[in-house]
Write a structure and sequence with these properties.
This protein has one domain (2-151, 198-232): CNF1/YfiH-like putative cysteine hydrolases (4-Layer Sandwich). The chain has helices spanning 39-52, 125-130, 132-140, 161-171, 183-193, 216-219; strands spanning 2-3, 10-14, 61-64, 71-73, 79-83, 86-89, 96-100, 104-110, 118-123, 144-148, 176-177, 180-181, 198-201, 226-232. By secondary structure, it is an alpha/beta fold. A hairpin with a 2-residue loop joins strand 11 (176-177) and strand 12 (180-181). The chain starts with a strand and ends with a strand. It has 6 helices and 14 strands. The protein has a 6-stranded mixed beta sheet with strand order 1-2-14-7-3-5, covered by helices on one side. The chain has a 6-stranded mixed beta sheet with strand order 4-6-9-8-10-13. 47% of the residues are buried. It is globular, with a radius of gyration of 16 Å.
Length: 233
């Protein structure tokens, strides 16, 4: 797992596919129950991920992700019964998880001594255009810091012209490298334009690293998912 060490009462990890109990196309740390994997294995994987941030897996909260701009306040133990693509919490010890398998996982935290709170986001090409990043920022409020986790990189994410047009219009021509889209740059631009000055990027491509990450573009289905997991300490 990839840990983000940020000053303050926060525990944050971006998970990889390493260190779990799932098998076959889900090997090994698949965190998604809706992938077709054995549910008991997914639950054990989630328990292991929660252990990395010293969190109680029974309290784990997730959304039912739908590429929206909805950011929900986390409810302990809520496991995908509510639609949304962001979760935030200021409750100590409550772990929140956003899943991804090429989309951009993002974590936001309140900084500069403000009342601690975290927000995790699932930001795909649709959500980035529609405003999921700004929705997360508005949900937390105040001075924030952010980390952008592994996602499909501009090395691998070739898109159609009709998809590229709105990205060029919003972010400029350099958001594209030929026919390939830079989602990580788009996420950083959204964060900076909204006033987040402290941003860390983990520039790893999920499609380029099959030993470390699941990738929808590379593998299709069936396959697992990784994510960003965080809590207020």
């Amino acid at each position: 797992m990839i840990r983000w060490d940020f000053p303050g009462p926060y525990e944050v990890v971006f998970t990889t596919r390493v260190g779990g109990v799932s098998e076959g196309p889900y090997a090994s740390l698949n965190l998604g129950r809706k992938t077709g994997d054995v549910v008991e294995r997914v639950d054990e994987n989630r328990r292991r991920a929660c252990a990395e941030i010293d969190a109680d897996p029974a309290r784990l909260a997730l959304n039912y992700q739908v590429h929206s701009t909805v950011v929900n306040r986390a409810q302990q133990g809520e496991r995908g019964g509510i639609q949304g693509d962001g979760l935030w919490s200021d409750e100590p010890g409550l772990p929140v998880l956003a899943l991804a398998a090429d989309c951009v996982p993002i974590v936001l935290v309140r900084a500069n001594g403000a009342a601690p709170a975290v927000c995790v986001l699932h930001a795909g090409r649709i959500g980035l255009l529609d405003g999921i990043v700004r929705a997360g920022i508005e949900a937390l409020g105040g001075t924030l810091a952010a980390a952008i986790g592994p996602s499909i990189g501009p090395c691998c994410y070739e898109i159609d012209k009709e998809v590229a047009v709105p990205y060029r219009a919003k972010f400029g021509a350099r958001i594209m490298c030929g026919r390939k889209l830079d989602l990580q740059q788009a996420a950083e631009r959204e964060l900076r334009d909204a006033g987040v000055a402290r941003i860390e990027r983990f520039d790893l491509c999920t499609a380029c690293n099959p030993r470390l990450f699941f990738s929808h573009r590379r593998d299709g289905k069936p396959r697992g998912v990784q994510g960003v997991l965080a809590r207020v300490a």
